[in-house]
Design brief:
The protein has 14 helices and no strands. By secondary structure, the chain is mostly helical. It has two domains: 60 residues; 207 residues, Hypothetical protein af1432 (Orthogonal Bundle), CATH 1.10.3210.10. Helix 1 runs antiparallel to helix 2, helix 4 runs antiparallel to helix 5 and helix 9 runs antiparallel to helix 11. The longest helix is centred in the N-terminal third of the chain and has 43 residues.
Length: 319
């Protein structure tokens, strides 16, 4: 490189250094103006507090201003997002619950039988999660994931969902698409995470976990499931729990083309598939929870339900 090239290179490096030094100053000047404006408004208002809630709200505003003065907003929000438990905040719970209830209501209108099945699976999954000692926030995610785990089937033709006999290979492939279809229903929440982020930090993390349950509840422990072929602990724990709960509910339920199994027979089948189809720890936790549950201590728990799905990820005879 000749001397002209070196001069040009030095000038470019100088411009980059200047930009690196000047740009943060400009950003901080702009932010300081905004912070000053907020303080000015608070001063002009001369608030007269009428309740403890108003005092807390004013204190929160001042604390936010103080935090904004200490570090960039993007860093503050990122740390808040990473540090806030998914559903430990009441406002996060309310926000996520509202979204799940809306989807569940839609399922009930479109296909009551799938909705009824999902309610049963949700209760069983919550029972397993509690038996495994998961945090309360994660138990709630598993419960809500169970409620909408089959939402993707509502996008399939009723002739496939309610077919009273075995599905054809083409219908079976269509039915296998329901986890991905269900996950796509929650996709807008993932895309808009940062739009809701400021108001509901942590809520989007919960929705992403629930979305993982919807998409991966037909994955198998040995990696032969669908849609992504995940294996072992690659599968989200919530999806592993819902997989066991759903298979149990399917196997004990009466369908038009076969009678449901007894609880004892179903438990034996779950144990037989433990380590291949199901997470062994989840199966054992479920068996322990059944032994402690009065509902399952005295005989069968069969119900009559229309066929919902035929899947190779189910155990033999469960669909």
């Amino acid at each position: 490189m000749d001397w002209v090239g070196w001069v040009i290179l030095i000038r470019i490096m100088g411009l980059l250094v200047a930009l690196f030094l000047i740009l943060p100053g400009v950003i901080w000047a702009w932010r300081s103006k905004k912070i000053g404006h907020r303080l000015h408004l608070l001063t002009l208002q001369q608030p007269k507090f009428r309740s403890r809630a108003e005092i807390d709200e004013f204190a929160t505003t001042l604390r936010q201003i103080s935090e904004d003065m200490q570090r960039p907003a993007w860093l503050h929000r990122t740390l808040a997002y990473l540090g806030t438990p998914c559903l430990d905040s009441e406002r996060n719970r309310q926000f996520v619950t509202k979204q799940i209830e809306m989807i569940s209501a839609m399922m009930n209108v479109v296909d009551h039988y799938t909705w009824n099945h999902s309610q049963s699976v949700s209760g069983l999954a919550q029972q397993i999660a509690r038996q495994m000692g998961l945090p309360d926030s994660q138990i709630e995610e598993v419960r809500q994931g169970g409620i909408i785990h089959d939402v993707g089937t509502t996008l399939l033709p009723g002739t496939v969902r309610h077919k009273p006999s075995a599905l054809t290979p083409e219908e079976y492939e269509l039915m296998k698409s329901h986890p991905v279809r269900g996950a796509k229903i929650l996709e807008p929440f993932k895309r808009e995470r940062f739009a809701y982020y400021r108001v509901f930090p942590g809520a989007m993390k919960a929705i992403e976990s629930i979305r993982g349950i919807v998409q991966n509840h037909h994955e198998r422990w040995d990696g032969t499931g669908y849609p992504d072929g995940l294996k072992g602990e690659q599968i989200p724990i919530g999806a592993r729990i819902v997989a066991v709960a759903e298979s149990f509910d399917n196997m004990v339920s009466d369908l038009p083309y076969r009678r449901g199994r007894s609880t004892e027979e179903t438990v034996a089948e779950l144990r037989r598939c433990s380590g291949t189809q199901f997470d062994p720890d989840v199966v054992e936790a479920f068996v322990c929870s059944l032994e402690l549950s009065p509902k399952h201590k005295e005989g069968d728990t069969r119900e009559s339900k229309l066929p919902r799905e035929q899947s190779s990820s189910h155990t033999k005879g469960d669909d």
